[in-house]
Amino acid sequence: MSWYYAVNGQQAGPVEDAEMQQMAAAGAINASTLVWRAGMDVWATLGSLVAPVSVPTEQCQQCRKPYPVEQTITLAGGPVCGACKPIVLQRIREGLAPLSTGKPFAGFWIRLVARMIDNTITSIAGYIFQIPMLIVVARMDKQTGPDLSLLAGTGALAVLLSVGAAAYYEAWFLVKKGATPGKMILGLKVVRARGGPMTWGLGLGRYFAHMLSAFTLYIGYMMAGWDEEKRALHDRICDTRVMSGG
Ligand SMILES: [Zn+2]
Asked: Ligand 1 centroid to 99 CA: how many Å?
């Protein structure tokens, strides 16, 4: 292949490939040197013809995407990208297994099963609180008809108590155990994205935030299915993550 090249505004050549390489090695031509050979429409810099210099990359342990080496740091014995650094630090604080060997975030289906277990437990509590209401109904005078205000009052009380009990259940287990019984059975753990202990405020807040996930036709729950960090709506609101294999 015969090459022409421009030096100080003057066309030179033709030279063959081997000679081009020698000139490049000697510094006589460089990436900004304009060159042309048969088949090219226009002159171009030598640098634009060579395949882009490949930047050495490393795979982030957390998201498994490649990043240039200088954009990663080493944590837990492997490369981690800037975006994943807080999550990895969190995992180290939580004493969880290295990311590359485990599934860090619990997905939609296992969390659904965990939620069903918890719902079964809390709905039993709910039935207990409905007992006073049933007593009121049973004692109603059949002659005078039902006392609607009494019925509504005990009904409201039953709902309030069962919601309160379910919220207390969620918060107590998150604060004391880091997971509700349903999650514990399946080896899941709820953690704060930024680290630190689970507080009562966060535990209660997460319970009511998860009701929001339910009220959005469960789309809030399903968000965990397609989120990179498997966050449901209530995880986004409370900035929590559900980890598996903890
Ligand atoms: Zn990453």
From this structure: 11
